[in-house]
Amino acid sequence: MSVANTKHSVLFPAVPYTGPIPGGLHPGEMVIIQGTVPEDADSTKPSSDVALRISPRFHDSPAVVCRSLLQEIWSEDQELHQLPYKAGAPFETVILVHKDAFKVAVNGAHLLEYQHRIPLHKINTFSISGKVKIHAIGFIPNSAIFTESGDLDVPYKGSILAGLSPGQNIAIKGRISTYPHSFTVNLCNSRTGNVALHLNPRMKSAVFIRNSYLSGSWGQEERELPFFPFSPGGYFELLVLCQPHRFKLAVNGSHLFDFRHRVQDLSSIDQLEIMGDLELADIKLW
After folding, report:
1. At residue 57, does pLDDT exceed 90?
2. How far apart are the first and last CA of the chain?
3. Over 60: is that where the pLDDT of 45 sits?
4. What is the mean pLDDT of the chain?
5. Which band of pLDDT confidence, cut at 50, 70 and 90, is reported for residue 42?
6. 3-state percent breakdown (helix, strand, coil) of the chain, nearest 5
7. Contacts (Cβ under 8 Å, ≥6 apart) of 172
8. Rounded Cα–Cα distance for residues 104 and 162 (Å)
9. Which residues contact 276 (CB under 8 A, 6 or more apart)?
């Protein structure tokens, strides 16, 4: 994700780094950290109150540990025994600010949610320490809510950090493979595995299946279609509009169908998955 449209950015800071957060943090805003993990990475200890400390641990039992420090007392650890950071590899960490929690994604995939221990209005400083090389730090206003893994390779996963809400659009541009069978687009919850919207065009049978996968079960398929819009080797633009009670879908500028929401909490839809017989050219969410 580019830090070009940030309200404030810091490029190639020396580490350890400590700097102000201009205007403080507000719900809907994001903090982006782009850098590279060195081969001999470690972590360090802060010395003042900390609203959120993210500490990747590379030795012994690799994990990501999150905690807060308030009046010299550490909160209980929130520990994930998975490590998306790789020694010697670049990374992008995105922290989305909610009114009651931080949501953290690494390299386009949701990592964790951390409830606020310190009120947002008291958070005014950002710091990085330890053996890490930082390329950029960006503080982004609440207009940007989508992050991807840095490429458009298939299978593809991208995080919708604030979840979906009515009025938002997802545009997917690409080209169908020369000898295709099908492709799939899922809007889902990365933590539960629920799929709020499952799109599965099948080229050989000219069928466009829509469904949902909730609590371990597939729902009722929907197949009605005025025409089939995809062809082998053809370019396409698929547009999904999220409305209060339904998704509306168009391909190449023509409306195809509506799909009524089977998941009522739209904010829980935090991941876009695309797989199958296609090449991706562009993905946008606004």
Report:
1. no
2. 14
3. no
4. 86
5. low
6. 0, 50, 45
7. 185, 237, 238, 239, 240, 274, 280, 282, 283
8. 10
9. 154, 180, 181, 182, 183, 184
Neighbours of 95 (CB within 10 A): 21
Query: Structure tokens of 64?
Result: 């990501």
Q: Are 122 and 26 in contact (CB under 8 A)?
A: no
Say which residue the tokens 């466009």 belong to: 208
The one-letter code for the residue type at 123 is: I
Q: Average pLDDT, stretch 34-59? A: 77
How would DSSP label each residue in 28-62? Answer: T-EEEEEEE--TT-------S-EEEEEEEE-SSS-
Tell me which residue has tokens 């020694």. Answer: 87
- Tell me the torsion sign for CA atoms 167, 173, 178, 183: negative
Residue 126 is encoded by which pair of tokens?
């950002």
